[in-house]
Amino acid sequence: MPVARRIRRRGWMNAAKRASQLETSRPIVRHFPAARARAVTPVEKASVYVFDVEGTLVDTVLPALNCWCQTLEEFGLVYRTADLHRFSGLDAQEVLERLLPQRHAAEEFILSKFVHRFRSEVLPAIRAFPGARELLATLKRGGAKIALATCCDPEELAHYRNSLNADDCIDVFVSGDDIRRGKPHPDLVTTALKRLGVAHPGEAVFVGDTPYDAEAAHRAGVRSFGMLSGHFSRADLLAAGCAAAFLDVKSLDQALAEPAAAA
Q1: 61-124: which CATH number, 1.10.287, 3.30.450, 1.10.150, 1.10.10?
Q2: Nearest to 186 by CA among 210, 216, 158
Q3: CATH homologous superfamily of domain 38-59+127-257?
Q4: pTM (predicted TM-score)
Q5: Rounded average pLDDT over 85-100
């Protein structure tokens, strides 16, 4: 065999050997569908449910965070989505106060810019999570009292209500205009319970997607369920006080229908 051919052949063999070694050295990633539906402690049903809206029933978390990033960048304030996510669940004013402990000269302008961008560019595309209406309808058929309680203003809540198409299942609505303090203060929850005519908070469950929801529930004396749709971890939600954490509204619906089901 000519030398040139032997060299080329040896090169091909060595390349093939290296490729084989790379393939076998790569970590093997296995997908276990059951891991997304692992068993949890059976869920005790309640007679009253108060639902957070944004991130719990409607898909707002990532769009809102991206809106914050774009708005802040216009003022020379550069943050990653991950930097802002830890404040997800707070109202916009509270987010700014925590982001900018030293008052920024343009703070009010930043806030107004964010609100305008969110309402004009983001809000029209926000949709309810699949299964959200079905969950609310199931609870209502079971005789539960239901409230929606969110820090957003009535205009935004109206859009979410239209997307959910579940007004016939909901007894009470509470928006940011109805309270003095947002989460983690308990005002949203206590206002909803008062309007529902609930004298004993222990009858109720607050369903939210952030640790701030769990804290608000705890301060109001009610149990809380956490939803992973807000992109906080199960561990974060449980550590904040949630009695249970669920992948999404469909998982919660399933767990309430069959308490031994997975979340």
Answers
A1: 1.10.150
A2: 216
A3: HAD superfamily/HAD-like (3.40.50.1000)
A4: 0.81
A5: 90
